[in-house]
Amino acid sequence: MIKHFTILLLFLSINTFAQSPNPKAKEFYEKALKNIAERKSVEAIENLQKAIDKDSTFADPYFKLGQINEAARNQENAIKFYKKAIELRPNDPLLTQGYTYIGTRLIKAGEYAKAKEYLSFSVKNVPQSSPVMKQLTRQLEQCKFGEEAKSTAMTFKAAEMGATINFKNKQYFPVLTADNETIIFTARSDDGDENLYVSQLINGNWSAPKNISDKINTTANEGTCSISADGRTLVFTSCDGKNSLGSCDLYISKKVGEEWTTPENLGSSVNSPFWEAQPSLSNDGRILYFSSDRQGGYGRKDLWVSELKENNTWTKAINLGDVINTASDEISPFVHANGHTLFFASDGHLGMGGLDLFMTESKIGIYSKPENLGFPINTHEDQVALFISADGTKGYYSSDVKPDIKLFQFDIPKKLSDKFKRASFVKGIVQDATTKQNLSAEIELIDLKTNKVVEKTNSDVVTGQYTAVLPNGSQYGLFINKKDYFFKSLTFNFSEKNEADGKIIDILLDPIKKDVKTVLNNIFFDSGKAELRPESFTELDKLQLLLTQNPSLQVEISGHTDDVGKDTENQLLSEKRALSVADYLVKKGINIQNIKVKGYGKTKPIVPNTSEENRQINRRIEMSIL
Prior knowledge:
The protein is α+β, with helices and mostly antiparallel strands. The chain has twelve helices and 35 strands.
């Protein structure tokens, strides 16, 4: 690395005179070299300055002062002395270290064209197979990338989130619930204590941030959190906290009603004696991404993932692999609400210098090559973390506003939003249909095209509230299940959906008893036909399971149509469709004696047949308990 190259050159005491300096200047310079060899830096600096006083055209003492200041991390003086040496002896290979140092700092200042001039000189004068050559080659790639990124800049305007949210000198790492109505972030007090704060969006304005919970915030540092879509599962970082396995660990807390449970360490499957931080939860809180510098990775800090099993324990965390992770740092992962777009920060992938933000898409566990988010989301400065709303319209991040750190928001540029799918949400309250008592029920979101469970969560045991996220690009069935109740199903076809929105749908669950009637919303037929489409099988299998678990139930499967077409044809079609459902159940082992089939045609509409939307509602399969 360049640092090692620097230290090596710093203590070389060979004479590099390119011209005959003033004899007295040369004498002071040689004394300085001896001081350096004896590690007497104060005396060395004094003698080098005396050499310059005797001969201001003598380049070597300037260069040596540049090296000393570089080692002391005094950037301003190092650049000043290196530049003077280069001015006196331009194009001298012996001054390559100065060219490299200045070029590196120019990248960090975003001056890519100037940086390229200095670094191109260095490339000509270092060994081809050296670590320095590898670093220089990469830096020249950064210069090219930075220039191209600036030339294709996106429209981007960020705004501070206001004094209400930015209520302390330093706040960072914001996360939001799927409905964009709750924000949680880390804030640091003047004494360095980090805690989590929460604010609610009320009538378009953010409320004054509050301590999230005395159970969560302690005298230890709590921060960099992630929240599930419904705002009821929180994973956060605590350094040197209770039951810690290492320097920083991840902890989990659940919100029941309005209270948070006492946080629990996520245990050795997730945490280690090393640093774990910056978590990101999937919508249902069952997949956890985080950054760690533990052993077994590809570099300093890598991204890892763990999944929650059915027995409520976490799988052993696995590394996300070398497509994502590099020999440098990968930090602050954020999995978007669509479930497969992962954003993160890295200084190992090609960027504009320092930490840049990247995105990658996951398909069946395989990640695409990370893509830099571009300028001006990324700049020559470090970009550490980003949160993008479920609907893909807003981005949130923190930025240094010297001497403070403030939260900002911005509209996602179309150039970026076109690269990932948006997600909608549905939320509401689950209640007993008879008593209106709030219920804790299992919420399953299933992709009807693949029969794969996309999301699984529960409504709140106290409030009955639930939230589910529905990514664009497929057809979904949302199933609400509770023991001793008939399941409820909703259907959402987002196969061609580009925009995102939110729906509020309260769910009334009927106890399993006589005269209960429910619509099977995820039973599908082609127009005018009675053959079941494959998307129907998920719901039919749930119905088959319910009838198997309650073998004494007598049910009626009924078909219904809208008012379009001849009455006799509608009647016959409704009967055939109901019969198709019954045949499927019988083939799955349900007693045919327990099933009555009935076609009602257009005679029992739920809503008036006055629009295509209403007609679609009336075209349905119902099940009634007899």
